[in-house]
Amino acid sequence: MRKYLLLFTLLLLPWALYGQEDTLRLGYTVQGTVVDAVTGRPLEAVHVSIPDRHHATVTNADGQFTIKSDVPFSQVVFSHLGYRTYHQPTASGNLRIRMLPESISLDEASIISGSPYEIVQAALDRVRENYSDHPELLECFYRETIRKRNRYTYISEAVSRIYKTAYTGGIFRDRTALEKSRVLLSQRRTDTLSIKVQGGPTQAVTFDVVKNPDILFDREEWKGYTLEMGQPAYIGDRLQFVVLFRPGPEPCEWARYRGTLYIDRELLSFSRIEMSLDMSDVNKAIRMMLIRKPLSLRFTPKELSVVINYSLKDGKSRLEYFRSTIRFNCDWRKRLFATSYTAVNELVVTDLREPAVPIARSEQFRTSDILSDKAAEFLDPDFWKDYNIIEPTESLEHAIGRLRKGR
What we know:
Blueprint: E1 8-12, E2 17-18, E3 28-36, E4 47-49, E5 56-58, E6 64-69, E7 75-79, E8 86-89, E9 94-99, H1 108-112, H2 116-125, H3 127-130, E10 136-148, E11 151-164, E12 175-185, E13 193-197, H4 203-206, E14 225-229, E15 233-235, E16 238-247, E17 257-264, E18 270-277, H5 282-289, E19 290-292, E20 297-313, E21 316-332, E22 339-353, H6 371-374, H7 394-404
Parallel strand pairs: 1-19, 3-9
Antiparallel strand pairs: 1-13, 2-12, 3-6, 4-5, 4-7, 7-8, 10-11, 10-22, 11-12, 14-16, 15-16, 16-17, 17-18, 18-20, 20-21, 21-22
């Protein structure tokens, strides 16, 4: 059995610039920066949303955000792991949001008592109650970036739709479709080694491990893991059980994961899942990660990690944010030094569309598809201003500028 994983290909790519045209208009905007109130450090991946609306985004690596709506709104809500939920009235200008770390005030012994296996099993048993029991149509923003050492060589972005059936039915009828996209690639000859990541935005469907338990929570597979309780934590205002998991001593034909589960203490719903592929057996990791490469290229995996966040609204949890990171080294057999590469793919659910119309098969973006192969020519320079996206970091903005100029 081949376990689900992020699969990619090392190859030689033709370099170009692609995109599509825009029709949507979101005329009401709030922007700013989110920092730790104690240290002043920018906070990345803070969930930013509008109450009573479905518009949302997350902060970038510099803590910056822009959130937009098609109607006026009076408040913005900020939520992050380990911090108090922050409610900010909308205002003109560039906001500076200071989030306070949340301390654990309850008796720790009463919080973490109990078997981690029983807590995880209870959360799995309550999926039917805690997650949507009807189809939903999610609007999303998706981005892939690749860095060679510390320099960006590839950036692709897309506005997509994800049609998700009820959480009681698995992922087999869930579908993804692109609406808008662009790809920017380096034109340097020395940057011809790159990655093609299969699945693009469908990765967030595959790695929705609550709905796709085979990837992590397979009943037999789960017996091969060792679980223990970690220190409790808050996500927003909600206290979480923290369960640490790692591969057990029993042998396995494929690489397993290690990571952390955050489970809402009151509802027993999964709030956040962090998982990294175990790299102790390099050959197993390579078999699960790599599709193909040039014969004379040596590939050394360093990291494959995934973060999935779920948001709670009206008593139901839904997919909120997905991020994967792949790090590896490559070197040609006749060369002395290896080159490091980092590929980051992230998706944020920015809106919930009504009605939840299924995506036609003719529109479907398949798990075997590659975003850089699907993107069309970029025609509108103002394309991204009318969607809720993840703001580029300063270094990413510079990279976009350089790639668009063909440097």
